[in-house]
Write a structure and sequence with these properties.
The chain is built from two helices and no strands. The termini are far apart. It has one domain. It is mainly alpha-helical.
Length: 54
C-alpha cells in the first residue's frame, strides 16, 4: 500500500513538472506588464511635450 501511494505521488509530481502552461501564463503576464509600462512612459512623455507646445 505504501509503495502504491509513492507511485501515485511520483506520477502526480512528474505530471506537475511537465506542465508548462503556468510558465506560459507568467511569460504573458510579464510581457503585458512591460508593454503597459512602455505605454505609460510614452504617454507621459507626449503629455510633457504637449504642455510645452501649448
Amino acid at each position: 500500500m505504501k509503495v502504491s501511494g509513492l507511485r501515485r505521488r511520483r506520477a502526480r509530481d512528474e505530471k506537475f513538472l511537465a506542465d508548462v502552461t503556468a510558465v506560459s501564463a507568467i511569460e504573458y503576464a510579464l510581457l503585458a506588464a512591460l508593454i503597459s509600462m512602455i505605454i505609460i512612459y510614452a504617454i507621459s512623455q507626449i503629455g510633457s511635450v504637449l504642455n510645452i507646445v501649448f
